[in-house]
Amino acid sequence: MQISVRRIDKTAILELKGSIDLASSPAVRKILLHELRESRTPRVILNLEKVKYIDSSGVASLVEGLRASRDIGSRLLLFGLSPVVREVLQLSRLLKIFEIYENEQQALSA
Amino acid sequence: MLRVSTNRCPHSQPAGKRVNTLNTDLLLKLEFPSNPELLCAVRGAMERLTERMGFSERECRSVTRAVDEAVTNIIRHAYKGQPNHPIVLTCYRLPKAAGSELAQGMEIVLEDQGEPPDPGRLRGRSPDEIKPGGLGLHYIRESMDVVEFSSSGGTNHLRLVRCLRSENTIRGS
């Protein structure tokens, strides 16, 4: 799993690449929660275009990030969901809970 | 024995019986330590095996996800996140059951020597609850036709069965 962060104004875009599973989800969780709780970034966008697998621990990290964003009044947005990631979020009945966009431009404009 | 099964598959076992495999048609056996870094190798093996068995692309993902989540649960809960404890994954080809349209399938048995799960935790939680954690068992139940757990002699056994739908046929059988 590779994670990189880009910043555009008050937005942080987290680029995730690889599989989010028990081995990698702690790193995803740590960076996500740092952006929200420590940096208090007003808008955090996750680019999931290159995520080929996500397990329940990865989904739990996203849910924790969502809760943290709500707690501090910021926003957590997702884009670039592959069919595999979308399937898992659907199975978790979480598709309607997250703000999900097709691409980065749409997420930035939202 | 704790059991979750649906009516879709004829391969569940009588309640109270220790989890035993129904078949000796071995397809794959993996023995590996409880290291999260190896989950990708387990998924890779399951993806190839389910493809070879003739499951649809979606079914392959589904079975692979169930096994991944089951191994994850063993590492996290049975072994408390400690590496280098033994896990054994064995896959068998199941024959057509008499009188059933849903015939052939795959039986997966996972064994570990960790702490048996709390029965309350095995009930899982509703995915309607928006909170982190607890989704793994939900994924397993959604993916598999039979989910049975037992513990004996210091070994935990998780038996998972996925039947092939009538439009599919196991290749090579």
Count of DSSP helices of chain A?
A: 4
Distance between the termini of chain B: 31 Å
Strand order of the largest sheet of chain A: 1-2-3-4-5
Distance between the termini of chain A: 27 Å
Poorly predicted spans of chain A: none
* Multimerization status: heterodimer
Specify the overall morphology of chain A: globular
Helix content of chain A: 40-55%
Radius of gyration of chain B from the CA trace?
15 Å
- Poorly predicted parts of chain B: 15-19
Walk across the major sheet of chain B and give the strand order: 1-5-6-4-3-2
Helix content of chain B: 25-40%
Order of helices and strands of chain A: EEHEHEHEH
The outline of chain B comes out as: globular
Strand content of chain B: 25-35%
In short:
With 110 residues, chain A is α/β, with parallel strands linked by helices.
Describe this structure in words.
The complex is a heterodimer of chains A (110) and B (173). In chain A, helix 2 (56-72) links the parallel strand 3 and strand 4. Chain A has helices at 25-38, 56-72, 83-91, 104-109, and strands spanning 2-8, 11-20, 43-54, 75-79, 99-101. The longest helix of chain A is centred in the middle third of the chain and has 17 residues, at 56-72. The mean pLDDT of chain A is 96. With 110 residues, chain A is α/β, with parallel strands linked by helices. Chain A is globular and about 30 Å long. Chain B is of the alpha+beta class and 173 residues long. In chain B, strands 1-5-6-4-3-2 form a six-stranded antiparallel β-sheet, covered by helices on one side. The chains are: A alpha/beta (110), B alpha+beta (173). At the A-B interface, helix 2 and helix 3 of A face helix 1, helix 2 and helix 4 of B.
Which helices and strands appear, and what pairs or packs with what?
The complex is a heterodimer of chains A (110) and B (173).
Chain A (H helix, E strand, L loop, with lengths): L1 E7 L2 E10 L4 H14 L4 E12 L1 H17 L2 E5 L3 H9 L7 E3 L2 H6 L1
Parallel strand pairs in A: 2-3, 3-4, 4-5
Antiparallel strand pairs in A: 1-2
Helix pairs in contact in A: 1-2
Chain B lengths: L1 E4 L20 E8 L5 H15 L3 H22 L7 E9 L10 E8 L6 H4 L13 H8 L2 E7 L2 E9 L10
Helix pairs in contact in B: 1-2, 2-4
